[in-house]
């Protein structure tokens, strides 16, 4: 998953982009970049690491301009190397095109091979680069038509920002996998992955970029186009954005994430009403379902697992060794609260089992007498090909093991996963418009199970 932020028609655009990326840091921790246009020149700065590590005041001072796009990356195709930092920029015919992509394409490698046969030279190993090649190849038909041609060719998840000459462009795949919001600010416009990036700056939210929409913003203002006039697509908003990925203060797909997570917790109580001394979350993303469970059950909530604020998300870190150390560093139990108690521990998800295996053991060692572990989503059994780096099926603990086997492995008293129905009822009227593929194995578009993240590198 990644975060994208773009701004048009505002002085010090790069500074605002920096703040926007800061608010979107939870969507990608591997690298960050900003590209800006000042009416004459395009300037860029990017690097590996967090937004705060890549940028400083001095760097931002040199990024003057009134149109800017930025990106925080969590790699899904192409490893974490400098060449793969986004926004990705190309120069051609005295012009510059920069792209910031959130999502993942399922047919990028096939397109890349065809383009390479035609003589195209690639600079990165990301799926996102094929989009740039296709747009440039079709540019003689005009920018909008070039994007339409490209959207007809690529398949998968894409919420995209482009900076091209004096124009900011946003477009989104017709399935609507990833969020993308549009707002107004200081006489200019802002587009971001999540509305939490709007709040920080004081942007007025206008609407979401529609699935299949192309929005062009230039000196004449915003103009919207539809890429697909006849074709029908089943809306497939990523339900995992609600469960884990997005920030609880954001509105995505027109819904507040916090409230949905609370619904998930309430539904957990309906399905699995337990009694215990208290409910406790694995922070951060377990917090809101735990509040929902506590409110529905009347049981008190305790924050018996303390989170170190100087460590980010562990699941999205690329190596298992680092994830294991990070989980320990991140969550530490409060022994005096746990000793002799029967506890209901709630987390949003169990992916590889790194957090649960490691931290439930620490709760036991702290002296808890009984542990019930509840998850606010169904078992994750299938990989994601649409922008979340869910490992291959083999790495997903629920792919090969039954709930009872996992319970035994975790050495706890109860293990319960929310049902698909419990998940769907929590998202209310979006129930027919969400992707559930990582739970059900029913992919909204055809996928290739032989896909590998390093497909262009091996
Ligand atoms: O089974 P695992 O492989 O451990 O993955 C699942 C865990 O990873 C995520 O937390 P993360 O630390 O990434 O972020 P959070 O602070 O938002 O909960 C998620 O919330 C689970 O706690
Ligand atoms: N998670 C994402 O949205 C990643 C975008 C793109 N596929 C990349 O790997 O850079
Ligand atoms: S497979 Fe899962 S993580 Fe991927 S888009 Fe669908 S719901 Fe989201
Ligand atoms: Mg977590």
UniProtKB/TrEMBL annotation:
GO biological process terms on file: 'de novo' IMP biosynthetic process; purine nucleobase biosynthetic process
Record domain Glutamine amidotransferase type-2: where: 2-220
EC no. given is 2.4.2.14
Against Pfam families, the record matches this protein to: GATase_7
Q: Which residues bind [4Fe-4S] cluster?
A: 238, 384, 435, 438
- What positions constitute the catalytic site? 2 (nucleophile)
Give the catalytic activity: 5-phospho-beta-D-ribosylamine + L-glutamate + diphosphate = 5-phospho-alpha-D-ribose 1-diphosphate + L-glutamine + H2O
Keywords in alphabetical order, please.
4Fe-4S, Glutamine amidotransferase, Glycosyltransferase, Iron, Iron-sulfur, Magnesium, Metal-binding, Purine biosynthesis, Transferase
The cofactor required is:
Mg(2+); [4Fe-4S] cluster
Per the annotation, how and in what number is the cofactor bound? Binds 1 Mg(2+) ion per subunit. Binds 1 [4Fe-4S] cluster per subunit.
Q: In which pathway does it act?
A: Purine metabolism; IMP biosynthesis via de novo pathway; N(1)-(5-phospho-D-ribosyl)glycinamide from 5-phospho-alpha-D-ribose 1-diphosphate: step 1/2
Write down the Gene3D superfamilies for this protein, in alphabetical order: 3.40.50.2020, Glutamine Phosphoribosylpyrophosphate, subunit 1, domain 1
List GO molecular-function terms, semicolon-separated.
4 iron, 4 sulfur cluster binding; amidophosphoribosyltransferase activity; magnesium ion binding
Name the residues that bind Mg(2+): 285, 347-348
Annotated PROSITE patterns = GATASE_TYPE_2
Physiological role: Catalyzes the formation of phosphoribosylamine from phosphoribosylpyrophosphate (PRPP) and glutamine.
Sorted alphabetically, which HAMAP family does this protein's record hold?
PurF (MF_01931)
Q: Which family does it belong to?
A: In the C-terminal section; belongs to the purine/pyrimidine phosphoribosyltransferase family.
Name of the molecule in the record: Amidophosphoribosyltransferase
Q: What organism does this protein naturally occur in?
A: Thermodesulfobacterium geofontis (strain OPF15)
């Amino acid at each position: 998953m990644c975060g994208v932020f773009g701004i048009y028609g505002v002085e010090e655009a790069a500074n605002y982009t920096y703040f926007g990326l800061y608010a979107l840091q939870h969507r990608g921790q591997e690298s960050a970049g900003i590209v800006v246009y000042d009416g004459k020149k395009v300037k860029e700065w990017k690097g590996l690491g967090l937004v705060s590590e890549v940028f400083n005041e001095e760097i931002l001072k040199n990024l003057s301009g009134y149109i800017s796009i930025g990106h925080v990356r969590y790699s899904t195709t192409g490893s974490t190397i400098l060449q793969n930092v986004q926004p990705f920029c190309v120069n051609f015919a005295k012009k510059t095109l920069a792209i910031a992509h959130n999502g993942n394409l399922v047919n990028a490698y096939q397109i890349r091979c065809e383009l390479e046969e035609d003589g195209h030279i690639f600079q990165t190993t990301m799926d996102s680069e094929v989009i740039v090649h296709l747009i440039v190849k079709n540019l003689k038909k005009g920018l909008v038509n070039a994007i339409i041609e490209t959207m007809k060719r690529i398949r998968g998840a894409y919420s995209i920002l482009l900076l091209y000459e004096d124009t900011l462009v946003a477009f989104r795949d017709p399935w609507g996998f990833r969020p993308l919001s549009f707002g107004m600010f200081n006489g200019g416009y802002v587009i971001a992955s999540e509305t939490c990036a709007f709040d920080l700056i004081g942007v007025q939210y206008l609407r979401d970029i529609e699935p299949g929409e192309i929005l062009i913003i230039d000196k004449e203002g915003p103009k919207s186009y539809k890429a697909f006039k006849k074709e029908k697509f089943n809306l497939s908003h990523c339900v995992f954005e609600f469960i884990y990925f997005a920030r609880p203060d954001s509105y995505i797909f027109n819904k507040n994430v916090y409230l949905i997570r609370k619904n998930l917790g309430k539904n957990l109580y309906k399905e699995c009403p337990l009694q215990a001394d208290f409910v406790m979350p694995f922070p951060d993303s377990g917090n809101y379902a735990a509040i929902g469970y506590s409110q529905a059950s009347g049981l008190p909530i305790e924050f018996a697992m303390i989170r170190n604020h100087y460590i980010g998300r562990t699941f999205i870190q690329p190596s298992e060794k680092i994830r294991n150390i990070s989980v320990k560093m991140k969550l530490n139990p409060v022994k005096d609260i746990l000793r002799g108690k029967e506890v209901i521990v709630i987390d949003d998800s169990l992916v590889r089992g790194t957090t649960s295996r490691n931290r439930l053991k620490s709760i036991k060692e702290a002296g808890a007498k009984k542990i019930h572990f509840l998850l606010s989503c169904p078992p994750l059994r299938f990989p994601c090909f649409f922008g979340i780096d869910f490992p291959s099926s083999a790495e997903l603990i629920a792919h090969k093991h039954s709930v009872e086997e996992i319970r035994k492995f975790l050495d706890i008293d109860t293990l319960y996963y929310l049902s698909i129905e419990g998940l769907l009822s929590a998202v209310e009227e979006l129930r027919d418009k969400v992707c559930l593929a990582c739970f059900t194995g029913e992919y909204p578009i055809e996928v290739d199970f032989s896909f590998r993240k390093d497909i262009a590198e091996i």
